[in-house]
## 1
Amino acid sequence: MHKYRLLTDATRFLFRNKKKPVVIFIRIIQYVKRDVFLRPFISLWVKLSQSLFHLAKFQPISFEPEGVFIHANNNLFYCYDTELEGGLAGMEYGGLWESQELALILENTPINGTVLDIGACFGSFTFPLANEKHAYVHAFEPGKKAFSLLTKNYQKNNLPGITLINSAVGDKMGTVRLSMIDYMGNYIVSKNKLENTDSAPMMTVDLYVRQKKLKSVDSIKCDVEGSEYSVLQGAKKTIETFSPVVLVEIHDELLDRQNASADKIFDFFEIRGYTYRRITEDNEVKTPLADHAAELSQGHNFFFYKSKK
């Protein structure tokens, strides 16, 4: 029946355009291009892609006008940037970025809690917290390209309770310059350095909390490529008032370029009555050691919390 209808349509077309050979020629070219070459090629490409994704154990993907999205195994979507050498840090293969760190902050964030995600990047903490804990997440990301990815993921996942802020966070208000060599690892540089840098506004946690009239802050994640101590200095009142759990990256080499150190961060929490757990490079949660240098040789992420009495 389908072949008969196709033959009838072709006959009618030829009869109606018998005095228009150019029209007939163009339509034949279009048919050959679409049905003889393009359609079989697309079909072959789809079959080959499915086989490759299956062999590589790649997560499902969707092609959309805004970009290519990975459907991660936590049922969230993340835009896949082909320029990013590290991809999505294993999420495209079914893993979760910093899974142990994420598990700790999820476990210690109450339902409908308030979270500050400082250095949100593409939202590997922002969206699971909003999705699983229905948390009100305030996600800070200063880098323009990283913020663009974060925005695409926000629009795709369509989760309530998320506020995106395109700003750096530190110990004072103002404007800073960010290194743009690795846009997923932007860090603050000297204001005199213009090459491969971009400007960004900077705010403090305390001022933001006051302006937004936040009544609680339950959790803070801080990964800002060496400016962690500066962030803490600008968050003193918030931390002292609400005693949130705080996940912090502590990397002496990165802190050194901001005239800070790991000892300063440990001291900051110790005088405020915090203890901590550390996450090793082997993704294990460990208790503190007497020697911070030994701890830092095993991993750079630390989860600070106040002991329940």
Note: The chain has two domains: 2-55, 97-306.
## 2
Amino acid sequence: MKMNTSTTRMPPKGRVAEHNTDAVGAPGIGSRLAIARYWARAETKVLPLVGVLIFLGLWQTLASVLGPYKLPALTSLWPQVVTDLWKNRLLEAQGGGSHGLAPDIVYTIESTLSGGALGVCLGLFVGLAMGRSYIVRGWLEWPIQLGRTIPPLAIIPFLVIWFGPARSAQVGVVLFSTTVVVVVTTTAAIRNVDPIYSRRALTLGASSNRIFATIILPAIVPEVLAGIRVAIGLAWGVEVVSEYAGAPAGMGTVFEKMIPYEALAVIIVAIFWVTVMAVLVDLLIVLTRRRLTRWMPRASR
């Protein structure tokens, strides 16, 4: 009876050690990916902190070189951040009221958010109408492009003359600047949608209204929200400058009263609180964008 013998092919002698070293000594692919993810998360948290520390260090260095009258040191500003919010004698002496910076900060926030909200709503309405109808787009495209080239600050004298130094003038400037940015962003986002999706929907029998509601609108959400974020960010600066030109209250009026006395500490504290409010509003927009675009890959959001 003949028995079948199986032969095992052994690797060459030099390959045995190499094979064992790769299997034991080198880390696996899973561990390498875990380490890469850990460092990626660490970088996103550490790098912003490093940037803040560098900024604070440069501030302190420049303050020591320029002196307290040209750039106050951070150590001297921290006590005023809270105290000036409720009481400031210099501002009170200049007719700014006896309640510190708080009423002016509230005035700026209210005007910026009201004008920005109205501008976003109007900009979305006009932008979607231009994207939906070629007739509306033909009527409004050139006026919108012309308005885009006009600096928002250039219309401040007109609004101050028409409405006087009232809140309506500041809200009007913010409304104008926000509307133009949102309209341009919305129309550009509609143009950027790949037409192949609409063509495929047409071949399946979808109407133009259904295509616009189920394909165009969801596709433009990320880009439109990014435009809204930019528009609201610009609105804060436009509001403060319009207040400086003439307003009953606000951060612009604080700057107007403090500049002749070179009260840089009060101005910096006022800028700090406006920046805090702007960052909080921007963070809210970012969270809303992530919520509405959670269907997108994380890297694209």
Note: The two ends are 73 Å apart (CA to CA).
